[in-house]
Amino acid sequence: MVDMLVTRTFPREEERMNLVTRAEWGAKKPTASYTSLRATKGVKIHYTGGAVPAGLAEPANHDRCADLVRGIQRMHMAGGRGERYIDIGYNLVCCPHRYTFAGRGPHALPAANGAGLNAGHYAVLALLGSSGLTEPNDDLLHALVDAIEYLREHGAAGPEVKGHRDGYSTSCPGDPLYRWVKAGAERP
User: Fold this and answer.
1) Structural domains in the chain plus CATH codes
2) Which 8-state DSSP code applies to residue 9?
3) How many beta carbons lie within 10 A of that of residue 26, not counting itself?
4) Model-level pTM?
5) Distances from the Cα of 167 to the Cαs of 35, 80, 92, 186, in angstroms?
6) Angle (nearest 5°) at CA 89 between 160 and 103
7) pLDDT in tens, 151-183
8) Are residues 166 and 123 in contact, defined by beta-carbon separation less than 8 angstroms?
C-alpha cells in the first residue's frame, strides 16, 4: 500500500513532506464523526510507549510502518487503552523513513493528549518506543517537523510544541524525543 504515496514537494529538499493518505495505509473508517477544531495552541508529540522493533528504521523495513499504524488504529478502536476511540487517536503519525501517515488530520479533535487536554493541541505520534527503537533518527525528526508545519499550515496549529508529558502524567514521548522537543523541535 505504501508504494502509492502522495509526495508533497517543497522548494528545498529539507522541507519535503511524504504524506501517506488514510486510503494508502489501509485505515478503517471512523465509527463516528470527528469533533471539529478551528485552531489549537500547537502540537503535542507522542511515542508508542511500548516495544518498537529495533530494526524498524532500516530502509528495507518501511513496509512495517503501515502495519504498525494499522495495529495502533485497531487497538485504539477496540478499547486497548481502556477507552474505545472512534478512530486512531492521533492527527498524524511519523515514521523513521520520513513519512507522515494521515490519522484524524487537521481540524479534528485528537483523543491522545488526555481528558480535557485534546482541544488544546494536535497529537502527533512518532513510531518510537520505550524499548527496541528508542532513539529518533534524522528522518523521524524531519517527519515530525513536516507534520508540525503541515498542521500549522492546514490546521491553524499555534506555535507551541510540547511533549505529551507536559500536560499529562506520563513518560511519553520518552526521554530522547522529549529532549528534542525541549531543545526547540528543530530540523536536525
Assistant:
1) 2-182 (3.40.80.10)
2) P
3) 13
4) 0.92
5) 20, 21, 19, 21
6) 85
7) 999 999 999 999 999 998 999 999 999 999 999
8) no
